[in-house]
Amino acid sequence: MNIILLGPPGAGKGTQAQRLVEERGMVQLSTGDMLREARTSGTEMGNKVAAIMDAGQLVTDEIVIGLIEEKIQHGSAGGFIFDGFPRTLGQADALNELLSRNGAELGAVILLEVDDDTLVKRIVNRAAEAAAAGKPVRADDNEESVKIRLMEYYKKTSPLIGYYYAKGNLKTVDGLQSMDQVAADIEKVLA
Ligand code: B4P
């Protein structure tokens, strides 16, 4: 089964994807992680990606789709968790095409619902915790970038909610609950 974790920045997509990897042996494909890796490459593409991410904007469909295409061509027995992808209608169409080309299907699209104030608090808190622990702080984890990331989400990503609802894949989970309760609700959806 291949699933998508959809939701605004800081909704807990990465957190829940890691749990699904541990519990179900699925393969996590996080475009955020792939892009953070690409930005350290020192290439022209990496530098472009870094500038866009730090500004809180979405990286171009062309770059993101290329990264995903490379990862899914070998398939995954336990299925893929698409974490933070797709984020635009163009990416959603490309994913349909890539899955059908690989003889695969899309199962649930799980929307994690969290209000804006909580999202900003979570992300600012993550930055504070990392700084206190002497760990690297994500350059886009500050209030100013988060507000731009939220605007990008409402403008470019939220149309995917209607898109997947119309296809019958959409399932909604209350992302305001504890991490354990969110995980339990996702398990119910996937049961
Ligand atoms: P991502 O890496 O995907 O990050 P995210 O949306 O900010 O976070 P996520 O929802 O995974 O939240 P997390 O679990 O970490 O994207 C970063 C950037 O990459 C984007 O802004 C964009 O520039 C670029 N990008 C990525 N994919 C792209 C694409 N497809 N197209 C174009 N550009 C793309 O949780 C956040 C915090 O909340 C953590 O501290 C966590 O511990 C906490 N938390 C989680 N669940 C909680 C809960 N239930 N209760 C309390 N706290 C919780």
UniProtKB/TrEMBL annotation:
EC assignment: 2.7.4.3
Subcellular localization: Cytoplasm
Binding of ATP, residues: G10, A11, G12, K13, G14, T15, R126, Q177
GO terms under biological process: AMP salvage
One Pfam family from the record: ADK
InterPro entries, per the entry: Adenyl_kin_sub (IPR006259), Adenylat/UMP-CMP_kin (IPR000850), Adenylat_kinase_CS (IPR033690), P-loop_NTPase (IPR027417)
Residues annotated as binding AMP: T31, R36, Q57, L58, V59, G84, F85, P86, R87, Q91, R138, R149
Pathway field: Purine metabolism; AMP biosynthesis via salvage pathway; AMP from ADP: step 1/1
Alphabetical UniProt keywords: ATP-binding, Cytoplasm, Kinase, Nucleotide biosynthesis, Nucleotide-binding, Transferase
PROSITE patterns xrefs: ADENYLATE_KINASE
Gene3D superfamilies per record: P-loop containing nucleotide triphosphate hydrolases (3.40.50.300)
Reactions that this protein is recorded to catalyse: AMP + ATP = 2 ADP
Protein origin, superkingdom: Bacteria
GO-annotated molecular function: AMP kinase activity; ATP binding
SUPFAM superfamilies on file: P-loop containing nucleoside triphosphate hydrolases
GO cellular component: cytoplasm
Family: Belongs to the adenylate kinase family.
Domain remark in the UniProt entry: Consists of three domains, a large central CORE domain and two small peripheral domains, NMPbind and LID, which undergo movements during catalysis. The LID domain closes over the site of phosphoryl transfer upon ATP binding. Assembling and dissambling the active center during each catalytic cycle provides an effective means to prevent ATP hydrolysis.
Protein purpose: Catalyzes the reversible transfer of the terminal phosphate group between ATP and AMP. Plays an important role in cellular energy homeostasis and in adenine nucleotide metabolism.
Subunit structure: Monomer.
PANTHER family: NUCLEOTIDE KINASE
Protein name: Adenylate kinase
Organism: Celeribacter persicus
This protein's encoding gene: adk
